[in-house]
Amino acid sequence: MEAMEDDCSDVKDDHNHNYCTASEVQKSSSGQLCDLTPIQQPVCLAVPGGEAGSVRTGLLCRSASGSEFMDSDSGSECSDVGGETECATPGGASGQDKLTLDSTSKYLVDAMAVEDYRNNHWPNLEKAIERLLIQNPTDHISVSYSQIYSYVYKCVCQQHSELLYNDLKSKIANHLQRVSSELNEVPLENLIESFNTALTQYITSLQCIVPVFMYLNKFYIESKLHRDLNQDLMNLFADHVAGKYVDTLLPLLIKAHTVPFKVQPSTMASVVKGLHSLRPEWSQLAPALFSDFIPLINPPALESLLLDYAANDQKLQMELSMNGFQRGDQSRKRANDDF
Q1: In whole angstroms, what is the distance from residue 130 CA to residue 220 CA?
Q2: What is the pLDDT of residues 39-71, one digit of tens each?
Q3: pLDDT at residue 81 above 60?
Q4: Which end of the chain has less Cβ packing within 10 Å, N or C?
Q5: What DSSP string runs through 170-199?
Q6: What angle do CA 105, 108, 112 make, to 5 degrees?
Q7: Which residues of 222-254 are buried (b: 16+ CB within 10 A; e: fewer)?
Q8: Exposed, middle or buried by CB within 10 Å (0-12, 13-18, 19+), for 281?
Q9: What pLDDT is recorded for position 328?
Q10: Phi and psi (nearest 5°) for 49?
Q11: Would you say 9 and 22 are in contact if contact means Cβ atoms under 8 Å apart?
């Protein structure tokens, strides 16, 4: 009996430093004994996404019933209930904590991606857009279109399509506001020519900008917004420039159209066609003017009005003849034709 007490009082230590002494076991009426038996203890690690912990061997102190175990290293308890081992890890993360951790990580990643867009991608695109917007139709500006397209491609692939689209529109809108302010300082007698220059330059710039943003247009604007980039940018010109001057331009155009060569015919045609392409409904403000440059502005002819059409043609020919326009050789004209 004394030998048994000496054995139980000694400290039993294995290579993992798991030990049990007789002083740690309190005897009870149920007759608990100190059983120093090497067993396999599962170690539960609550690490999201990690690998399962390894199984290590340790000397544990258990009661005679074999219902509870205590690991001296980790301080975690494992209870064998119904043949299944349950491990309680006080430091483990719960499901709610894991969800919060994942959400925080995603937020940080998104924030870093947006910062990279703001610091690297957009500044390079912004400089290229500025150069393309201020070029004249006859000037040639050296711009690496492949590099611009590469930046646009990266932005779309990194889920920055909405940011890029809004930044592009904001940049061009600011430019058009400056153009509108410059036109406000132009004298009325030069407004038609200045407006034509601004419109022509803008259309030329879009012919360079829209193709390099083709990837954005195809995979975001057309597929998600169901719109077209070129039309959206033309609408910006209508909103910020043309819409502010259309009421001033139309009377000037009508007056200039009545005086031959007061304004170059090519300039007149460019401005009238440009206004119609921006807002087709503007043609109803001056249908007589727009019908001289654009077909199908007036309503279709009616058979009941053929005599009125002939009378108007005769009146026009008479006015031209009185103003000095010669009708040319009339020798081959039919005898019953007055004109």
Answers
A1: 23
A2: 444 444 444 444 444 434 343 434 444 444 444
A3: no
A4: N
A5: HHHHHHHHHHHHHHHTS-GGGHHHHHHHHH
A6: 140
A7: eeeeeeebbebbbebbbebbbeebbeebbebbe
A8: exposed
A9: 64
A10: 80, 0
A11: yes
pLDDT surpasses 80 at 191: yes
Q: How many residues does the chain have?
A: 339
Structure tokens of 5? 């007490």
pLDDT tier, 190 (very low <50, low <70, confident <90, very high otherwise): very high
Q: Which residues contact 135 (CB under 8 A, 6 or more apart)?
A: 141, 201, 204, 205
- Tens digits of per-residue pLDDT, 200-212? 999 999 999 999 9
φ/ψ (deg, to 5) at 79: -115, 135
Q: Residue 232's closest CA among 153, 165, 151?
A: 165
CA 117/CA 125 separation, integer angstroms = 10
- Residue by residue, DSSP assigns 22-88 as GGGS---TT------EEEEE------TT-PPPPPEEEEE---TT--EEE-TTT--EEEEETTEEEEE
pLDDT digits (tens, 9 = 90+) for 14-45: 444 444 444 444 444 444 444 444 444 444 44
